[in-house]
Design brief:
The protein is 36% helix and 18% strand. By secondary structure, it is an alpha+beta fold. Strand 9 and strand 10 form a beta hairpin. Helix 5 runs antiparallel to helix 7. It starts with a strand and ends in a 64-residue tail after the last helix.
Length: 1046
């Protein structure tokens, strides 16, 4: 595993790596290996990230809660292998052993010639990347005595750092801006230090790579290192390291298996008992620190020292190793056989045993069949085909396969993505022989062949940061072309000069404000088939929709609401009084007919939708793929109107694209509803307005004492709700930013309600199913499947021989086949036979967890049962528990008894806290919310905006650390990517003062839709191969404000 920390003291670091009597807190900043910050200030400081929660346990190298870079201690004297490295070091004439004085000078920015670099106040000395071997490798090397592993590890780290240097070494240049901008340098200066014990005195081989805060520019000048890419890509670097070490271990005969994120692995043959035996010291230390309420690195280190075996000493190597071997013998493992087997395999790979050409071709074909299966057959456009495939080595075949899978994994969630992430995901898949260098080379081949498209670079060095795919460009171009096709294509439902009077007549005492009226008039009087309403949270969209629906119905039109999820469908029915269904069910019902373009099914679909007004609510949550189908259906089947309503500042889609924002940027006919009608206090109105503009710090300051920070923030939020009177509890919703926080809130609140007597004494424990978050492509890899999971097959998948139904996952056999149990039968399938480009989502994994229910508990459904009116995310209350099952009262006041064995007893969960991602569209009088600064991926501006706009009267926000939360939200806007935006064709989420629209972009880029994506008479691009230029000049903000005409 890899952990990262900033070095603040040059003298402390130099002394530490020469003698282990300095406390790591003397030169480290932060608590280890999280994603960290985006680099230091422009004063030459390396900078520091918050660093908490890294990808593994600092001291032990296992997954866990360890302290960043120095969980593993040890002394340089115990293993004298140190060395200077990096192109920068070579330029400075630094080589061989790293001495204390030379190291301290370099960390202070003093070059061998006396020149001093980046001498500014609060200068950071450097950054420490610590590469820790898997526990199994440490055991075999340090306990069982295979020193080849230590050499392989040193080589893997050197290889990784050479790659890192070329990829992520940067400085800042001030040629174009006063604040500076990054530029690649490709040169680092760093020292490497090999240690072999943890601070708990367990065997733990690890190498510190301490990178000095300096780099050399292309003009030869030395200046401070800009480390933003090193922090940002720490998980990418970790994946590259794991892949390199796996390859080096394979060269000396070891076989490995993937065990965790970022390609973490263990060596086959080392039993779990041995790994656990040499990891328990760390676990005991963490548990003791938790018991004492200690969280800081210094405090945990003190616990480590105080709980050591007094008979053991880091300087007494013989006694320490003897103790390790004694502990290994106690569990009956000495590792000798594993080492001998590895040596035998390695000997079989010597030059005298090299295969002939015929044998090599045979091995290639065998590897294709056995390791890759049928997954990468000629239908996969991202791998070489036909005879070209037979010219590839097995490693090249696997690299192509891994990169192809990585692209598909990424493109399901984003239209564009960092090029480095392709390499990382490819490495995470764990295919033999795939390294960072090989994956990078394959990405370059795909770019050269047009299978990937480089994003437009605004960097001074022209470096490409993001790429997209021809398919994503085609989909987005089609969406805009279909919107354009609908311009002037319909007759107004009501003449513009009569619309206001008609709307007022049906509104009764709910008179519409200017924004609501403008939106209603647009929907009823525009001649464009597809229009948009951009409305802030709480703008009164339901009232506007109801008015449009009543007038349209009077004119003989059917009004059908569409929404992303069932909860929103229910809100449309109840709030606007219209029929509604999910987007996916609508697309499934009509997409096939729309694509056909003729025939009986097509005619029937046109008849069914004739004169229909479609109202798409929360349009920002609809991804590009379903939006492509919606706009295509609207035109192909002659829908009267498609009114897209939403807020581009709130949550976007889960899957790729931001079609609603893209349509706005392209100039769709649109009005704005900017008046907030929800918040009833000046404080909350101000907070909502600031959050909508992205002014996070200002919004937090306005919250004042309603923002509460502390290490037990989740407990504080639960206690606040539990402390409310019953009537106040009913008016107060609890929101959580992530799944773990929601689970803890639910449990704490349930415990509190049981303690105060609100819940009944009778209880029942249910084994419920929770969805496992995977992409379609990940389901094609055996390591995705875990024993105890359930594979749900929504429709028959012929290529793997599975019918519709639920299958219990038993595990994965030696051939990589997934073993399933259905009834009394055991079946197996090769996941690599799943078609790589099948987007039907026929397969899904769920896992079992326990939930204990009491009478009066509040629950939510996690799946639909339409026959009984139970919908995903809707609420219910447990009214009774008996030996035959449980009774519930649903949200619409039904009373149901669910007998034992009822499938819905597996599809529920506690519902005292609501995930913020499910809260969009929710309104409550009061709210209590939890957001954690340590959850950097979940703490973003869009989620914050949703959180503060749910409540009318009062909001309390609980966090672990105020400044960390503010910094996390300010750094992360939460924006989705767009293919057209990435290539510079369309400005969507540009800076607010920069304008938007295509006239602001590079006119020279005019992407050609690939021929294989342009199918005649198909909704998928028919007749829209060219340009997507706007037909009218864009305004600085793309909208048509027809309120002026009113």
């Amino acid at each position: 595993m890899l952990s990262v920390a900033s070095v603040k003291s040059a003298s402390g670091a130099a002394e530490y790596f020469a003698k282990d009597d300095k406390h790591p807190a003397d030169y480290y900043v932060g608590e280890g290996g999280g994603a960290g910050g985006e680099g230091g200030p422009d004063n030459g400081a390396v900078g520091e990230g918050p660093g908490s929660g890294g990808t593994g346990r600092g001291g032990e190298g296992d997954n866990g809660t360890g302290r960043g870079a120095d969980g593993a201690g040890g002394s340089a004297q115990q293993n004298p292998e140190t060395g200077w490295a990096g192109k920068g070091a070579e330029m400075l004439g630094l080589s061989g052993e790293v001495t204390k004085d030379a190291f301290e000078k370099i960390l202070n920015g003093e070059l061998p010639n006396g020149e001093k670099v980046g001498q500014v106040p609060n200068r950071q000395s450097g950054i420490d990347l610590t590469f820790s071997m898997p526990k199994s490798a440490s055991i075999l090397a340090l306990v069982s005595g295979d020193w080849r592993i230590l050499a392989a590890h040193w080589s893997a780290v050197r290889q990784t750092m050479t790659w890192v240097e070329g990829k992520f070494a940067e400085a800042r240049t001030y040629e174009r801006t006063k604040s500076g901008e990054p530029v690649k340098t490709g040169e680092l200066v760093y020292g490497m230090f090999a240690h072999d014990t943890s601070r708990a005195l367990d065997p733990q081989g690890h190498i510190h790579v301490v990178i000095a805060n300096l780099t050399r520019m292309s003009n030869g000048a030395w200046q401070a290192l800009h480390n933003g890419q090193l922090w940002k890509n720490n998980s990418v670097i970790g994946a590259a390291y794991h892949a390199a070490f796996r390859e080096k271990l394979a060269e000396i005969g070891y076989e490995t298996r993937i065990t965790g994120k970022h390609g973490q692995f263990e060596i086959n043959g080392v039993p779990k008992e041995a790994i656990d035996a040499f990891s328990k010291r760390r676990e005991a230390i963490v548990e003791k620190a938790k018991e004492l309420g200690l969280t800081s690195p210094a405090a945990i280190d003190k616990v480590t020292t105080n709980t050591r075996d007094p008979k053991l000493n880091v300087d007494d190597r013989d006694k320490l190793v003897a103790d390790w071997r004694k502990r290994a013998a106690a569990i009956g493992f000495d590792g000798k056989q594993v080492i001998e087997d590895a040596k035998s395999r390695a000997e079989g790979k010597t030059n005298e045993h090299l295969p002939t050409t015929t044998q090599r071709i045979g091995e290639t074909i065998s590897n294709i069949v056995n390791a890759i299966g049928e997954a990468f057959r000629p239908t996969d456009p991202l791998v070489s085909q036909g005879l070209a495939r037979l010219k590839l080595s097995p490693d090249e075949v696997r690299t192509q396969a891994a990169v192809a899978s990585a692209v598909r994994i990424l493109e399901q969630r984003e239209a564009a993505f960092p090029a480095a992430q392709i390499t990382k995901i490819a490495l995470d898949l764990g295919l033999k022989g795939v390294t960072a260098e090989k994956a990078d080379a394959r990405v370059e081949q795909l770019l050269e062949g047009g299978k990937l498209i480089p994003g437009q670079s605004d960097r001074i060095d022209g470096a490409i940061t993001h790429v997209t795919t021809p398919q994503a460009l085609a989909t987005e171009s089609l969406i805009l072309a279909q919107i354009d096709k609908g311009r002037g294509a319909t007759t107004p439902i009501v003449a513009p000069d009569a619309a206001v009077e008609r709307i007022n007549a049906v509104s009764g005492d709910k008179q519409l404000n200017t924004g609501q009226m403008a939106a209603a008039v647009l929907g009823l009087s525009s001649s464009d088939r597809i229009v948009a309403v951009q409305g802030v949270a709480g703008a009164g969209k339901s009232t506007m929709i109801a008015a449009v629906a009543r007038v349209a119905e009077q004119e003989g039109h059917k009004v059908l609401g569409l929404a992303f999820q069932n909860k929103m469908v229910g809100d449309l029915r109840d709030g606007a009084g219209i029929e509604a269904q999910t987007v996916s069910s609508f697309v499934n019902a009509y997409a096939k007919a729309a694509l056909a373009g003729q025939g009986q099914g097509y005619d029937a679909a046109r008849a069914a939708l004739k004169g229909t007004v479609l109202v798409l609510d929360e349009a920002s949550m609809v991804g590009s793929e379903p939006m492509k189908h919606l706009v295509g259906i609207a035109n192909a089947l002659g829908v009267e109107k498609l009114i897209m309503i939403g807020d581009r500042q709130q949550l976007s889609s889960i899957d790729a694209g931001k079609a609603f924002a893209m349509a706005q940027a392209d100039g769709i006919a649109m009005v704005r509803m900017d008046e907030n009608l929800r918040q009833r206090t000046d404080q909350l109105r101000t907070v909502a307005a600031l959050a909508n503009r992205g002014e996070v710090r200002g919004a937090m300051e306005v919250l004042g004492d309603k923002l509460k920070a502390g290490p037990d923030h989740i407990k504080s939020a639960a206690d606040q709700w539990l402390g409310l009177p019953k009537d106040e509890r009913d008016r107060t919703m609890v929101f959580a930013s992530g799944r773990d926080a929601r689970a803890e809130l639910n449990q704490r609140i349930q415990d509190g309600l049981r303690a105060d007597g609100t819940l009944g004494k009778e209880s029942v424990t249910l084994r419920v199913l929770e969805r496992v978050d995977t992409t379609r492509e990940e389901l094609r890899y055996p390591q995705t499947y875990k024993a105890g999971q359930t594979l749900e097959v929504a429709r028959a998948v012929s290529e793997i021989g599975l019918r519709r139904g639920s299958y219990e996952v038993l595990g994965v056999d030696a051939k990589g086949r997934v073993e399933l149990k259905v009834g009394n039968r055991t079946v197996r399938f090769d996941p690599q036979k799943i078609a790589p480009n099948d987007k039907r989502d026929a397969l899904g994994l769920v896992q079992r967890t326990e939930v204990k229910l009491h009478e009066n508990d509040q629950i939510r459904w996690t799946q639909n049962d339409k026959e009984r009116g139970l919908y995903n995310a809707s609420l219910a209350q447990v009214t009774g528990i008996s030996s035959t099952g449980i009774s519930v009262k649903t949200a619409d006041d039904q009373t149901l008894h669910l007998k034992q064995g009822d499938p819905m007893l597996e599809r529920l969960g506690l519902a005292y806290a609501l995930n913020m991602h499910m809260a969009q569209g929710v309104t409550t009088d009061k709210g209590i919310a939890v957001m954690s600064g340590s959850e950097s991926n979940l703490s973003n501006q869009r989620l914050f905006n949703v959180t503060v706009t749910r409540v009318r009267d009062d909001l309390t926000l609980h966090t672990d650390n105020k400044e960390r939360l503010i910094s996390a939200i300010e750094r992360n806007e939460g924006n989705k990517t767009s293919a057209l935006e990435t290539v510079g064709r369309l400005a969507i989420d540009a800076p607010r003062d920069s304008g938007a629209g295509r006239d602001k972009s590079d006119k020279t880029f005019n992407p050609e839709v690939p021929a294989d994506l342009a199918k005649p008479n198909s909704m998928d691009l028919s007749k829209h191969r060219v340009a997507v230029e706007p037909r009218v000049p864009d305004k600085p903000f793309p909208e048509k404000d027809i309120s002026l005409e009113i």
